[in-house]
Design a protein that fits this description.
The protein is mostly beta strands and 118 residues long. It has helices at 60-69, 111-117; strands at 8-14, 19-22, 28-41, 47-59, 75-88, 94-107. A five-stranded mixed barrel has the order 1-3-4-6-5.
């Protein structure tokens, strides 16, 4: 049952090209936003589409795969965990952020196919 604790699985489309940074330790870090869409009918029977945006981070080999094979608009599946952290701005304000720490990614569209269609 421990495998079910703090596990996030999402399928969605990238909102922008992944942003890659190499940390001082030499480990790559990638950040991007993933959009997931939910479609349902409201009480009046009208179709409603709701989009949720999820901030995602990945390190190491997973970050390299995302950097090399994933682009804006591409559909991917990912697995990770939800993490919460805080930081202080230059003005001294404390900010809080929740994000998905991705440890596995599955490409649902090929990068080459998208570029040929464009």
């Amino acid at each position: 049952m421990n495998a079910l604790r703090n596990k996030v699985q999402l399928i969605g489309n990238l909102g922008h090209d992944p942003e890659i940074v190499e940390l001082e330790s030499g480990v790559p870090l990638v950040r991007f936003s993933l959009a997931t869409k939910e479609v349902y009918k409201n009480s009046e029977g009208e179709k409603v589409e709701e989009t949720q945006w999820h901030p995602v981070v990945a390190w190491g080999k997973t970050a390299e795969i995302i950097q090399n094979y994933v682009t804006k608009g591409q559909e991917i599946a990912l697995e990770g965990k939800l993490v919460h952290r805080s930081y202080e701005t230059e003005a001294g304000e404390k900010r809080y952020i929740s994000e998905v720490k991705c440890h596995e990614v599955l490409l649902l569209q090929s990068k080459r196919k998208e570029k040929q269609e464009a």
